Amino acid sequence: MTGFNHGITGAVIALTVKQPVLAVPLSFVSHYFQDLIPHWDYGVSREADKNGNFFTKRFNLSLLADFIFSVILMIVLAILFPTHKLLIWGCMAAAASPDLVWAYYRLYREHIKMQKPKYDPLSNLHHKMQWSQTSAGALVEIAWAIAGLSIILSMR
Q1: Three-state DSSP class for residue 126
Q2: What pTM did the predictor assign?
Q3: What is the C-alpha to C-alpha distance for residues 94 and 92, in angstroms, rounded to an integer?
Q4: Where are the domains of the chain?
């Protein structure tokens, strides 16, 4: 899933559970369950195989757009749910945070240090869980974005 959709999931959990001690860890764990579902790959699989570089222009632009949409969502949700904004933001960040490990492996180890990384056990499991990252997974992402935003708006 994109960070935007992980953020939507975190927001839904925050607005449903409303207890930080439960909502934040649930949001974190939700990331791994979402990665079991077919999802979009930012076009990385094809381009990385073609030129050997993970950080293609397409990937970088997609990642930037995902980040911008996520920040916009955080601002909108803070306006719609001002009393819960910190919990929503915390859950959104927790839900997206497992992907930050790839910045270490892909950017630092592979791109900067030019080393083939050996994943830690959790990252290895995370990598294997993402069994279906394709362009067709964008349909799943769109469906979840619509459903998740509908759920959030119904809680207003």
Answers
A1: helix
A2: 0.84
A3: 5
A4: 3-154
